[in-house]
TrEMBL record:
Its main location: secreted. InterPro entries: Chemerin, Cystatin_sf. This is Retinoic acid receptor responder protein 2. It is found in: Secreted. GO terms for biological process: cell differentiation; chemotaxis; inflammatory response; regulation of lipid catabolic process. Residues 1-20 form the signal peptide.
Length: 162
């Protein structure tokens, strides 16, 4: 009986740790790059003691005007794990249930699947209870600045040297 209980607890631990990687692994590559950017910022913050992983997407949008260019907006949550900050292999890290989620918004432009440095990618992450309506408005404004402007110069508007 004790062996069965131990086996069930081990299986539950494996399933809960694999949920973290399963959600992340199901994201398209262009979204993973933005999540990685946010996780790098969060996990490098000096006040953070635990390792954070992608938990779930709230909202995703992609605009592809052509020429291998995409504009990505991704709103998602990161969640603390039982692993300490600096963990290299997070595949065995289990989510904690006693910590607030971190609410993140990333907006960036990609060219051929790689994040462009112009315009500068926007990343904002904050503990969910501290997120205000003013912060949400600021996020929207910053993402619009990064996003596609239909009135901007494009290759199709070029007339050559005549």
């Amino acid at each position: 009986m004790a062996a069965l209980l131990l086996w069930l607890l081990s299986a539950a631990a494996l399933l809960s740790s694999s949920d973290a990687t399963r959600e992340y692994d199901s994201l398209p590559e262009t979204y993973k790059k933005g999540v990685d950017l946010a996780m790098e910022k969060v996990n490098s913050h000096p006040d953070i003691q635990l390792h954070f992983l992608f938990f779930q997407s709230v909202e995703k949008s992609t605009f592809e005007p052509g020429f291998d260019v995409s504009y990505i907006n991704h709103h998602f949550y990161l969640k603390a794990t039982r692993c300490q900050k600096g963990t290299v292999d997070a595949s065995g890290c289990q989510f904690r249930r006693d910590r607030a989620l971190i609410d993140c918004m990333v907006c960036y432009k990609t060219y051929r699947g790689e994040i462009e440095q112009e315009p500068e990618p926007f990343t904002h992450c904050i503990h969910k209870p501290a997120l205000t309506e003013e912060m949400k408005t600021t996020r929207d404004e910053k993402c619009k600045a990064v996003g596609y402007n239909s009135g901007s110069i494009t290759l199709l508007s070029s007339t050559g040297n005549q």
